[in-house]
Specification:
The protein is mainly alpha-helical. It has one domain (5-167): Orthogonal Bundle (Hypothetical protein af1432), CATH 1.10.3210.10. It contains eight helices and no strands. The radius of gyration is 15 Å and the shape is globular. Bound molecules: fe (ii) ion (2 copies).
């Protein structure tokens, strides 16, 4: 099965009953779209990162003492889209102390891990902008302090959040 962006938005709307978390989810989806346009990604991968961006924290709606929220997101998303589930489970692993640890990512393709980096950096940038009231540029710098991301992905995020090249994409 594959999810499209409308379906991902409907799932977020239906499942996420905490407004700040719902807004964060949609904001991360938009950041992922901006990065996808700038890299650029093809249409199939753009769909995947936007859907995974919107649904990365879905697992927070089902707190579980044995699993991280990323793993819960995976368990909830696998019924809809295997690739979106794989991308979501990575979203706290591109940092000095990966959560869950990297062993749990066996089976996640290299391609989906790279798409997972996009969700991960967009997640951090949005968190710094929203929770810590950082400017987009400062949020980008904070997100990279503990994050381990490919240079082209970092460049695309910086280009989007600063809008330095406006919207040629
Ligand atoms: Fe998360
Ligand atoms: Fe998040």
């Amino acid at each position: 099965m594959t999810l499209d962006v409308t379906q991902a938005t409907e799932i977020a709307y239906k499942e996420i009953m905490d407004y700040p978390l719902l807004k964060h989810s949609m904001d991360v989806g938009m950041l992922c779209l901006g990065v996808a346009k700038r890299l650029p990604l093809n249409d199939a991968d753009t769909r995947l990162v936007v859907c995974a961006g919107i649904l990365h924290d879905l697992g927070k709606t089902r707190p579980n003492t044995n699993l991280t929220h990323s793993e819960m997101s995976y368990n909830m998303l696998i019924q809809y889209d295997n690739d979106v589930a794989q991308i979501a489970v990575c979203h706290h692993t591109f940092q000095k102390h990966p959560v869950p640890d990297l062993d749990t990512l066996i089976g996640v393709t290299d391609h989906n891990r790279r798409l997972g980096q996009i969700v991960a950096i967009c997640d951090k940038v949005d968190a710094y902008m929203t929770r810590n009231h950082k400017s987009p540029k400062n949020a980008f710098f904070e997100a990279n302090k503990d994050g381990i991301f490919d240079q082209d992905i970092k460049d695309a995020v910086y280009d989007f959040v600063t809008m330095e090249h406006k919207r040629n994409h």
